[in-house]
Every structure is written in C-alpha cells, then in structure tokens.
Amino acid sequence: MNRKVLLLSLILSSIGVVMIYSASEIWAEFKYGNQYYYLSKQILFFAVGIIIMITVSKIHYGYYYKYANLIFFSSLIILILVLVPGIGSIRGGARSWIGVGQFSLQPSEFIKLGLAIFVAKVLANNVFKSLKDYFGLLLIIVVVFLIIMLQPDFGTGVVIVSSMVLVLIISGLPIGTIVMVGVMGFAGLVMLIISAPYRMKRIFAFIDPWSDPLGSGFQIIQSLYALVPGGLYGFGLGGSRQKYYYLPEPQTDFIFAIITEELGLLGSITILIIYLLLFYYILMISIKSNSQFGTYLSLSIGILLFMQFIINIFVVIGLIPVTGVTLPFLSYGGSSLVLTLASMGIIINIAKEVK
Amino acid sequence: MVILSIIFLFLLVIIRMSYLQIIKGPMISELAIDLWERSIPIDGQRGNIYDRNGELIVGNKLSPSVAAINRQVSNKEETALFLAGVLNTSYEKIYDHLNKNVSIELIKPEGRKISSEQAREIVRANYPGIYVVGDTERFYPYDSYLAQVLGFTGIDNQGIAGIEYYYENFLIGKDGGLKIVTDAKGNYMHDIVGNYEYPNKGLDVYLTIDIGVQMVMERVIENAVARYSPEQMLGLAMNPKTGEIYAMASYPTFEPGNYQSYPQEIYNRNLPIWMSYEPGSTFKIITYAAGLEEGVFTLDETFNDPGFYMVDGARLKDWKKGGHGTQTFLEVIQNSCNPGFVEIGLRIGEEAFFKYVNDFGFGSRTGVDLLGESTGIVFNPEVIGPVELATSAFGQGNSVTPIQLVTAASAAVNGGILMQPYILDSVGYGDMEEIVFRNEPTVKRQVISSQTSDIIRYALENVVAKGTGRNAFIDGYRVGGKTGTAQKVGPNGTYMDGNYILSFLGIAPMNDPELVVYLAIDNPKNTIQYGGVVAAPLVKEVLQEALPLLGIEKQDNQIDREVRFWIDTPFYDVKNYIGMSKKDVSRSPFYNVEIKGDGEEIVAQIPIQGERILEGGTIVLYTN
To answer: Which of A170, A228, A242 comes nearest B21 by C-beta?
Structure first.
C-alpha cells in the first residue's frame, strides 16, 4: 500500500507539473517574459518534494509522537511570526509568507502538519468521552484558526478547522457537541463574513455570479467559462482559452478549471478518481495501522488533504464561495507541494507497519 | 461512514459538473464564445428590388470597408497616418477611431464603401489590427429612373426613403461576421480558428412596376423636358382594374446612389403622390360620372353654351371664346365645355356632388404603400355655395393629387369600383427562388354603377376620337381620355397669369380598360397652354409603347357603332403648318382648317404632321 500511495502522489504531482506549465505559460510570458517561469520553479519544488518525501518515509513516524509538542509549537511560533510586519510579507492581500526573495515559505502549510501530529498524539494518549475531555483540543484548534484569520487566510483556516473537527468526531466527539460546534462554527462564519464585506460579496457571487460579472462574480464566471465549453473531451492539452488572461492566476486556485477545459470532463473525472484512490488507501492505512498514533496521524493527514481538495473543487465548480484554497499536488506552490509530499512520506512510513 | 461521505461528496462533484455541462452548457458556452470572439461585422446584403416581371431594378455591388481591432494596432500614429493617406481623410479622424475603447471599430464613414484599389493597398500594407471586410452597396441599373419611388439607403445600408424605407423589414439583411478568437487583452490568438458566420440576405421585393413602361414614361418625360423646359413633370401609369402601379415618374429627379448631391425637395417629393393642385378639366370625368349616376342628364340631351355661365352673379367663362353653341352632353365632354359642366354640377346639387367627390377618394389619402402621400384639399362643406359647386364641377377650387385623380378615373371606367393603388407585388427570397408573400388588390368601395361606367367609357373614347383628346388617338387601340389645363394658384392665392399645369389622362382599351396613363407638365415654355396640345401627344406616346409591353392587343372595332363610318371615310395626311404665317395657310375641300388665336405665325397644330385626318375633320392651328 505504501507503494500505491507513492505512485499516486507521483502521478498527481507530475500531472500538476504539466498542467501548471500549460495553465501558466501565457501569464508567465507576460509577467516575467519567460513562459517556463512557473514550470521551472515547480519542477524544482517537485524535485525537493520527492527527496523530502523519500527521506520522511524512511523516518519512523514514532519520532513525531516523541517531538509532537515541539513540532506543533515551533510551527505555531512561525505562524505568529508571519504576522509581524518585516518578517511576514504580504502577497495577494494576506500576510501569509515568511522569508526573503526567492526562498519563502507559507507557515500555514506547516501548522497543518504540526496540528495533525499534535492532535493525533493527544487522541492516541487519551480516551475522550465527554465534551469536557475535548475542550482543550477544540480550544487549540480555535486559537490556530484565529491566528490564521489574522493574516487573513480564510480558506486555510476553514480547511484546518473542518478537518480537525472531523477527526475529533471520528474519534468519538459526542453528537450533541458536534451540533453545538456546528452552530458555533456557523455563527462564527457568519460573523467573520459580516466583519469583512468582501466575503459577503463572494457569497452572493457564487449563488448568481452574473449579478456582478466584473466584480465578485468574475472569478466564478471565468471558471465556468473554462469548465463548460471544452465538453467531454476538452480543447486538448494546451488548448485552453481562459488561460489567455481571462482567468486570473490559472495555475493556482483554478487549475482544475483549466484541466477540465483542456482535458475535458473525462480527463477531470479521471483525475478525481486518482484522488479517490489515494484517499481510499490513506484511510485503509489509518484503519490498519498497528498503533493508535499511526491511525490518528494518517487519518488527520488524509482528512486535511481531502478537505483542501474538496473545498477547492467546490469553489471551482461554483458550489461554494471563492475561499482561496489551492488544489493539493496540482496547484502551483512550493510550500504546498513540498509539505503535501512530506505528509505522504509520513503516510508511506506508517503504511510500512500496517497489520 | 467516512468512506461513504467521501463517495457522496465525489458524486456531488460529478453531478454538478454534469449539470453544468448538460443543462447550463449551451448558455455558458455561448457566453464564453461571446467573450473570446471579436466579430468583424459583415453586412447582410439587402434584398433586391425587382419589377413585376423579375427585372432587377435595385441590386447590390461589392464595396469593401475598413475595420480596426484597436488593441491589436501596435503603432497607432503610423497606422493612422497610412490610413488617412489611403482614405483621403484627416489623420486626426483616423487617430480618433483607433483610440476608441471598443473591441472593434468600424472606420466609418471614412473607411466605408472604399474602392477595390484602396482595399488592395490596405491589405497589402498589412498593418496589425486593420482588417478589410466585405460589404455591399446599392446598385441601380436604371440610374435615376423610378428614383423617388425606390428611395435610397444610408451608410449602414439602412433604408432611408421610398421603398427602401417603407419595406425595410423585408429588405434588410441579417449581419454576419468574421469571428476572431482573442485573448482578454484583445490580441489575436493565431492558433485558434475563428468562425465565419454567414450574413443572411434580406428578402427580395417585387414591385407592380413594369420597368419597360417606366422607361417609356421616363423617356417621354425627358424629351418633353428638353422641348418645353417645364418646372416639374410627373407621370403615373396604373392598372385601372386592380390599382397596380405600372410606372411612376417625377421630374426633376436624382440618382439614388448619389442622393446627397441633390436638394432634399427633389429626393423627398414623389410628385405623383405628393403634389396637389387644381386638376382642371381632367376632373370633369368625375362630374360627368356623378351626373350620369344621378341621372341628371343623358348623352344626347342638348345644351346651349353661349360662352359663359352666370352663377350667383359670377360670370364663369368657357375656354373657347363665344362658346360651343348648341351641343349634346356627349359633345359637352368632347369639347370640355365649362358651362356644360357647370350645368351638370348645378343639376346634381352641392350635397350629392361633394358626396361623389369624397366617394371617389378626393380629400383623403389613397393609402398607396409609399411614403409622402398628400391628402389634397376639398372645399369645406360649410363654405360651399353655388359658385364653389360650379367651379368644382369643371375642376377648379379643389386640389387633388395625381394618384387620387388616376384612382378616381379608374373607378369611373372599371365598372365603378374604387381600388386602393399599390406598388408591392410580392416578396420573395433567394434570387427569385421562392415567393413568400403575394399582395392582392384591395377594393375600397363601389362608387357608381357598372352601367354608368359603361357610358363614361363610351364618352371618354369619343373625347379622344372626336374631341379635345384627339391628339392621343392611336390607330387600333381604343383610347379614351380627358385633357386638363389648370391655372396654377400663386403664393398670394390668386391664379397666376400664363402659368399652367397641363395634363392628360388616357385610358385604353375603352371596351375593357387595362391601362391608365396620366402625365402632367408644370409650366411648359414655348407652347400653347392646352393639355390637349402638350400633354395628350405625350400620353399617346406612352400608351402606344406601353400597351404592347403589357401584352394588350390591337383591336379593329374602334368606336363600336361608328366603325363602318371610320373605315369607309378616306384619310388625309396632315402636313406641317408650324412656322407658317396665318395668311399662307391653305384650305382644303376635304377637311376644315380652324385657326385659333390672334397672332400671325402658327406655333402649334392638332393633329400634328404625319398623322391622318378623316374627311370632314378639323385641323386646329394655334397662333402665337
């Protein structure tokens, strides 16, 4: 099973490299005068990611149990540091980046992994029954969410909260609590949306994008223009029209739209099935893991991956408002790809010891 | 449970994508294509205009136009300089066009309908973003003929006047376009092929016009203009049974393709429907018909004309000094005797007379499918007294349009039915492939009985055979008709001296009328001011050529009962008298020569040289 996870991760990342080139060449040429700009960087990230994935797969996952607190709190500190002007830098309206020039990282990617390890450890150590037992974990999750919202990175925040709450539910969080958390979460979402009018607009935009075609509905409309006209077989690799400046930054959040435009409905369903297989194997690994920690760690990683995946797809196909979540493996981005591959390395390592 | 949830969410994604593809697909794809494609418009050609026999009257010819996709124009200054040079216009104008913030800019009017040389030059220079697109403009094989009826089109091939405007909805084509796929910045995407959307041609319009008859009429008018230098002339030919208009002409005229170079009074006035004036004696047909229908006289009843008629203290003169003496009412119309018509009018009475005037369609539009028709002016019933009735009876006082007169006269001879004149014969498409609509004659009302109509036909044939209309007599065709000489009313409301509209209304054949021709000539110079002298020969010329064109055969039974007499009586060739002095005119024992006027030199004659005169007939000579 470890080989299957490795293979599927490599297939998805490779498709990502090809599609990132196809989606980005026009913008790359326009912005940097180099159509291979994003491609060359993604190839580099991919290479680094493979090395890290293989390295990580050799490290016994027990070490994460041992250093869980250290890993979690150091990633939390980086996450807080990114908020400090001068250390964190602003890109696309959010202070989500740390580092200088060519080499910069997204701490929110690290906290995902750090939190997954921490939650897995806590769940493995204790048998939680009541809401009181879960209170500490829920508080930590909410704190992480609020820190991320300070950047602000609504999409990542939602991915983390929903994934972790889902993990807690699977571990036995009582149903009454689930409802309460759901209500609280919903109330929180509503408040967040009201506090920032642009989120309000985004919500209306996804219901009827043509109500504001040049403003909040713009991205969804452009996404639909990529998804639909290609039909069953698509315009062929490289045949996208929406990448010609119509769809902004097509290589990141909306790469799935370009993939559908070029490879058609059949192509995109094929890619969805590859994801489905990957999630299936991760769940199997989680179920079959011979340790509680292994079970919860692979479950947390798998659900984080799935939530990010499904939220991105839902945004692209216009089922939920635009949130700014990338598609794991396929979207352009170094931190995202490297850490996704690293987490797959962890899964591979856990898989080596399944019953 | 987790796996089930994941599968459920997957299915949700696939359902949503299929929904977008299948249900929303066509709508979204269409919007997307709108977004990607820039359309270089190609005008849909207008439909052709044909005559009743399918002869092309207005067609289309190719004329290229220039369009710019401004975002693709890399060097606006240089491109503008080049285009301004080729199109003979100012640099600023072109520069403005190239800087408009639109996806595609038509360089118009400067770059519209350019020559093929200009087009070639522009294509060869190959400036980025500049396109030459196929376009058409109207083409008129008969130049200025029928111009006021046809109207013309504007810079965007839209109908502005005449048939072009009236039947715009039939004629207008659906624009097509050359679709170019562009990126969001408007650049041409070379590797993606755009569509060519075919423009659709408009429907073809077939007129009731017979272009042969029209040409005859136009030529007759041209010749008359050359000879008489009138202010205006107009002609109208119609089928009296159906109201189909065969020909309609106005002078002065214009070239529809070049209408801007003419004053608007010329291209906006379709004289046969626009002009209204006192008709003069042609109106006597109506008075005669009303009198016969009312039974106030019979043809063989006699009437004495002393040369004037006293009505309410007003002395209404006859056109002939000394009057026509004692004559039958048939001779009254043959001689166009004014006092005779005053008598008829007074016998009918005001109320009945004006009922007929209105029933014959005067004072209201005929409803012909052309723009710019006038109503004419009929006396207000409140001011009508015996004098107004009397003058109206011989054609003065009321003002009418030629088309009203022709329609009314048609009703008088066609069995008594007032038809609505019309000019649209049918609508078709695909260059005479199929007819989609066929127009039918419209009956307005029965005005007089068919028996009365029979008598009028007989009387009008006599007018031409024996009376003032004899200059319209044609051997073999039973022509009937009536002359008209109307003094024009000047700007101050009084009759102008020596300024007449001379007219003749001719109908043939009188046993079964197929064609009415009316010609009027406004203020002809160098001639005697009688409709019978000037207008009748012109109408005769039109009839003579038009009747065979319409397939109407000659008959040998002219003037039913007197045919023996006509054939048995010897003819004499009429020689030329014009230019002779009065005292040199020789008399003949076989026919009479009557000299009218007090001058010394003969300037006109009826009949003219080359015609034949019956033994016992009269040649009338007019002096200067």
So the answer is: A228
